Amino acid sequence: MLAADASFVRSALVDLVLGDERVALAAARAVAAQERWPHVIQLAVAWRLIPQVRDALARVGDTASGCIDEASFGLLRGHLLARAAESAAIVRGCAGVQRVLQDAGVTSVAIKGVATIATLYGASSRRMLCDVDLVVDPGQLDAARAALARADFADISPPWDRHNAAITFSRYLHNYERTFVRDGIEVDLHWQLGRRPPPALRARAIVEGSIAARVEGAALRVSGPVHTALLAVHHALRNSFPSESTLKDIADLRIWWERMGDDHGDAFVTETLASGFGSSLCALVRTIVQRAPAHPIARCADAVEARLSRVERREAARLGAFIERNVRSGAPDNVTVEMMAPAMFARSIAGLPHVVVSQVQGDPAVKRRPLVARIGNRLRRAGRIGRELLRFEHVATYRAVARAQRRFH
After folding, report:
1. What is the pLDDT of residue 229?
2. Residue 101's Cα: distance from chain center in Å?
3. What would you report as the CA-atom Rg of the chain, rounded to the nearest whole angstrom?
4. Which of 21, 110, 273, 387 lies at a CB distance of 3.0 to 4.6 Å from 114, suitable for a disulfide?
5. What does pTM read for this prediction?
């Protein structure tokens, strides 16, 4: 697909998912006119947004209004059914894992996808999932790992010391977690969200603020309303706002405000600002308001922006520009952002001995690509980074992302 076509498909998907009825209708008709529905649906599958596209079409009239042809609508429906079955299996798997941990005396809390289904959507068909994310108190980590091992969950992460060192010295803003797999269900067990999580996102705070929930007969313990929204902001920033995951985070925030804003909106805004996520939340919410000016979440954007400093408002504007550019042309190479945070590079260099040891020890499960292929990839990345940095108007937005992330490194 040509770059211009890819940009059109990406922009249309964003307008469908986040736009009000007028914007979504215009996007759907433009996609139909250019016969791009198969491409939009393919992208929605990749970005795990099929239910949101279906909801958007329901608002604007589906096939009756000429928004989508019957064949494409059938394709969309087929994907929706398949993904709903996958999400339902993951929700049931989450409940089973939590029972295993509870029997061992460990309190675990589902966050991110499972929590948003439980607190916002109410049914597994309304949001796509790919794995289970659980948080446990660090003091219960060893007991949790032992319980999962007894239940035949395979720990597929690298050896413990090497894995922790890699996270600590990485240039990326990683969560401390281990990945376990059984019967096709992947479980990411978290005990610390980043190197320096704000108080509200420490594992113990999430566990203490958790609530009981039920989804389609499955009993769950999930993050509380404010933590659920705050984690969506954290997830977007931690990953440097790539469209393929950030759009889902923004869609969750949109629904969250519609259903929780009256009861928990003020607490969410206060906690977001106290946690250092104000500029990030403002940028994410403004992405919605640009496409749905009358949406009630505009009140959130106004409340946050009014309490930001002038420097923070400028940062929010640059983060917003970064997000919008990602929608049209794709995110820059992560190294481009990391180059704006020299302290992170310095820490990764300090951890180089750990990396060298890891390479020497090797991991038989990891297959390295041929040297020529690795060199070619490095050269292509270097060329892309060079082209990005020559667009001087973009550098300020890369720096804004690096600064926002640096608060939690």
Report:
1. 97
2. 25
3. 21
4. 110
5. 0.88
